[in-house]
Write a structure and sequence with these properties.
The protein is 36% helix and 19% strand. With 175 residues, the protein is an alpha+beta fold. The protein folds into two domains: 99 residues, no CATH class; 53 residues. Strands 1-2-6-7-8 form a five-stranded mixed β-sheet, with helices on one face. Strands 3-4-5 form a three-stranded antiparallel β-sheet, with no helix packed on it. β1 and β2 form a beta hairpin. Bound molecules: zinc ion. The site of zinc ion has 6 residues, from α1.
Length: 175
Amino acid sequence: MGWISTDNEHEGWAAPVAPDGRLSASSTAGGMLFRGVTGHYPPDEMLPDYEVIPDSQIIGWRGQCECGWQGEMWERVTSRAAANFSHRRDYFALDEFATASSKVEDAIHDEWKTHIAPSEAVLGVEAAAREYTQAGHRLDKTVAAAKAAGASWADIGRAVGISRQSAHERWADKQ
Ligand SMILES: [Zn+2]
């Protein structure tokens, strides 16, 4: 139901928040489903480990990720006058279905993207490191071929951009 990172390590969504702070991952006809049985709310008929909390009691929304990350709270207010997007307050009537509005969901999506930004960026490093290793192997092979064809260490060093001595130290015992 949520957003998935390129490496599949993160799945995030905008989770409705219960009055006791629990976060929901899904909903049912009677309201939002929350894992855990406190006895304060009716259990779900299909899932005995879950309670159903009516939409009217949802106090807000926050980002949640499978990895355990949680975003800051977006508070639900029940009067239009109290709504203030920059203060993370969104208006929702009590009789409305309490999934985050598209505006709040987009904001939470952005927060989640910031959360996964380091791991997404590391994927670029991984790809570059892979290419770097492959290029190193190709360099070793072409140096060996050049040496076999009669090139000197000075020729090879010049081609690589290093000294004759460095080229010799790097590849002489690989011949
Ligand atoms: Zn995550």
